Amino acid sequence: MDETDPDGDLVRRIGRGDEHAAEALVARKLPRLKALAARLLGDAAEAEDIAQEVFLRIWRHAAAWTPGAARFDTWMHRVALNLCTDRLRRRRELPLPENWDEADDRDAPDAALIAGGEQARVTAALASLPDRQRQAIILTYYQELRNAEAAVLMGIGVDALESLLARGRRALRARLMEEGDD
Fold first, then answer.
1. Rounded to whole angstroms, how far apart are CA atoms 71 and 121?
2. Which of 77, 111, 133, 140 has the fewest CB atoms inside 10 Å of its own CB, making it the most exposed?
3. What is the per-residue pLDDT across 11-69, written as a single tens digit (0 to 9) for each?
4. Among residues 71, 112, 87, 70, which one has the least CA distance to residue 36?
5. pLDDT score at 26
């Protein structure tokens, strides 16, 4: 077993084609990967697609993985984060439908918040944050990564991450207080 990386032994075994090692890694990592993707994308089905793609990449690249540069878990989270970012970019690039400016006669957006309770309020407030702030909060609070690990995943310094966290928390607090006043 690799002393520096708790997943090192499994990854090496996967690199040799060990299906049992792949099953063990999936059992160990799948819930956190799906939770990360679901929080970033807001869609459970897309989160499952992302997790599946991450594990396919692990299977394909495990033989070439070399320990030491970064923990395997950090690399895996980076892959998931990149895939989620790509999905979010593609969503924004979709052309608007012809009737995009017609009146929307569905329930008001706050109706779902009132009906869904506190968790729905927090989820909606989190979704309203800019992408980088949302990523920082999800990685540190929901994925329970240390600031240094989250900063590496996001490709920024710890100071920049802490700034994103501070701005994100302020924005969440303001959004939740606004909704509480309604």
1. 35
2. 111
3. 999 999 999 999 999 999 999 999 999 998 988 999 999 999 999 999 998 888 877 76
4. 87
5. 94
- Among residues 32, 42, 151, 29, the alpha carbon closest in space to that of 87 is found at 42
CA gap 50, 56 in Å, rounded: 10
- Could you give the CA distance from residue 127 to residue 112 in angstroms, rounded to a whole number? 14
pLDDT tens track for 68-108: 767 888 889 989 999 998 888 887 755 555 654 555 455 54
* The residue to which tokens 């032994």 are assigned: 9
pTM: 0.63
**Angle formed by the axes of helices 19-41 and 8-15, nearest 10°:** 110
Do 28 and 73 touch, CB atoms closer than 8 A?
no
Domains within the chain, CATH numbers bracketed: 8-93 (1.10.1740.10), 112-181 (1.10.10.10)
62-83 in b/e form (b: 16+ CB < 10 A) is beebebeeebbbbbbbbbbbeb
* Alpha-helical regions (H) of 67-157: 72-93, 109-127, 131-137, 147-154
How many residues would you count in the chain? 182
pLDDT at site 95: 56
Question: Do 41 and 134 meet the contact criterion of CB atoms below 8 Å apart?
Answer: no
Q: Which of 161, 164, 135, 134 is nearest to 147 (CA)?
A: 161
